[in-house]
Amino acid sequence: MVPGASESHELQRTIDALHSRYKPLTDGDVASYIPELTKANPEHFGICIATAEGAVFETGDCDRAFTIQSISKPFTFGMAIEAYGAETVAKYVGVEPSGDVFNSIELMSGSNRPHNPMINAGAITVSALLHARYGDEAFDLILERFSTAAGRRLTIDADVFESERRTGHRNRAIAHLLLNFGLVHDAAERALDVYFKQCSILVTCRDLAMMGATLANMGKHPITGAQAYEIPSVRSMLSIMFTCGMYDYSGEWAYRVGVPAKSGVAGGVIAVVNRQLGIATYSPRLDKHGNSARGIEVCVELASRFGLHAFDCLNVGSGFLQVIL
Ligand code: GLN
User: If you take atom 6 of ligand 1, which residue's CA is the nearest one?
Assistant: First the structure.
């Protein structure tokens, strides 16, 4: 727990209780297809909630650094939208759930675009767009933007980067398929390096909760006040997280939890309650979809306990009638 929170606060008591309840859950396995990730301690488990006003509640392993992996995807998507405009980005990558695994080698029939920017094909396309625009500075700009969203200077795990770069044949195949369809520029290998590097950015559970709170707070970091993303990009980022953030579990997630979210294979999950909260969990054992097994359970319970679901009756939604009547 940190300043702004109090031990007696209901959120603190709830996350403490959820931590105790799900600590014994050992379902799933640590990701092994990136060799370096097998070194993760499967017992690590953290839950952190940051409010859009900047109060932070945390329990368990919230200071352990792990790689952001696919949780980088909505954040680079937001950057691409700001660099090119949503219409241009849409020519390269769709916004449809794929219903398929995250590293599927498949494009949309007809347009030959990746289904969405939350699966690897779409995220690699987005990284290539950033590389095409910013050249070799692209990664530094990504790191800077993620740092602004987190509210502290982030770094990368060079070992995880090298490990994935050496063994990421499937992503390399995807990048070359994209190149075949003219969706990435001819520096596909350099764009892939940007993608592997963005996945290797080190974060803690608390960083992810703060990044979530930044999105909840319309792109502005709740404590530093820095504007990490423009307001319209946040809407696009959250929409795509809502429909596609949990891979081929996205429909079930929208049904059961009902908030925008994104998972990563290192075991992180980020969820955003619009205008209210950033929620993050860290636990490296993954279920068959590649989502953190404990993370899913914690989020399901938090949503049901506090009525966080977008369509929960407690959630009053847009106030447009009060404004226009
Ligand atoms: N770097 C990983 C990959 O490209 C990210 C995947 C993930 O977190 N789901 O396979």
Answer: 70
- For residue 234, indicate whether it is catalytic: no
Told to judge if 203 belongs to the known catalytic residues of this protein, a careful annotator would answer no
Asked if residue 3 has pLDDT above 80, the reply is no
At residue 299, the pLDDT reads: 98
DSSP reduced 3-state for 203: strand
Of 84, 157, 159, 151, the residue nearest 117 (C-alpha): 84
In the residue annotation, 257 being an active-site residue is answered as no
- Kindly state if the Cβ of 249 falls inside 6 Å of ligand 1: no
In this prediction, residues 96-105 reach a mean pLDDT of 86
Question: Residue with structure tokens 């490990």?
Answer: 163
Segment 251-269 shows an average pLDDT of 97
Confidence of residue 322 (pLDDT cuts 50, 70, 90): confident
Q: Is the CB of 264 under 6 A from ligand 1?
A: yes
Distance 198 CA to ligand 1 centre (A): 10
| Nearest atom, ligand 1, residue 102 CA | 9
Q: What is the mean pLDDT of the chain?
A: 95
pLDDT at residue 314 in the model = 86
**How far, in Å, CA of 137 to CA of 220, rounded?**
24
Asked whether the beta carbons of 126 and 186 are under 8 A apart, the reply is no
Report the Cα–Cα distance between both ends of the chain, in Å, rounded.
43
290 lines ligand 1 (CB under 6 A): yes
User: Which element (helix H / strand E) includes 196?
Assistant: helix 188-199
